[in-house]
Specification:
Helix 3 links the parallel strand 2 and strand 3. With 130 residues, the protein is of the alpha/beta class. The protein starts with 15 loop residues before the first helix and ends with a strand. It contains 4 helices and 4 strands; from the N terminus they run H-E-H-E-H-E-H-E. It has a 4-stranded mixed beta sheet. Helix content is 29%, strand content 12%.
């Protein structure tokens, strides 16, 4: 999209948070930036969800936060990849609650539930439903 000629006929669709994180990461060497596009609409909203295994001792978010306060850096959280909305949601939770989690990433946004169910993480954050 960013290299298409502005002919008035070319329209594209992107996951905005992902596109932003790509051009903000110098290692990705993006060929576009925030001025490369003119937004014309938003197709949907993507609510997040937080989950723990059904076998987990945590039944509420407060249970999880209390455990993190008692065990700084020991409770594993997962989000797909670094610098995605899911990852930043978790970082923001750490800041808001005054806790520290052990950050583990699955390398893609498709893997968090698999990693959680497999017992690799204590909890995870996903952009959409489980």
């Amino acid at each position: 999209m960013s290299t298409a000629k502005p002919d008035g006929y070319t329209v594209g669709l992107t996951a905005l948070p992902t596109a932003i994180m790509i051009y903000l990461d110098p290692q990705k060497k993006a060929q576009f930036d925030g001025k490369s596009y003119i937004p014309i609409g938003m197709q949907n909203s993507d609510p997040g969800a937080t989950a723990v295994s059904a076998k987990s001792p945590y039944k509420t978010m407060q249970d999880l936060i209390d455990a993190a306060k008692a065990n700084p850096g020991k409770i594993k959280f997962g989000a797909g990849t670094k610098a995605t909305r899911q990852h930043l949601d978790c970082v923001r939770l750490e800041q808001a609650a005054g806790v520290k989690f052990q950050r583990v990433h699955a390398g893609s946004d498709a893997n968090p539930v698999v990693m959680l169910v497999g017992g690799h993480w204590t909890w995870c954050r996903r952009a959409s439903g489980f």
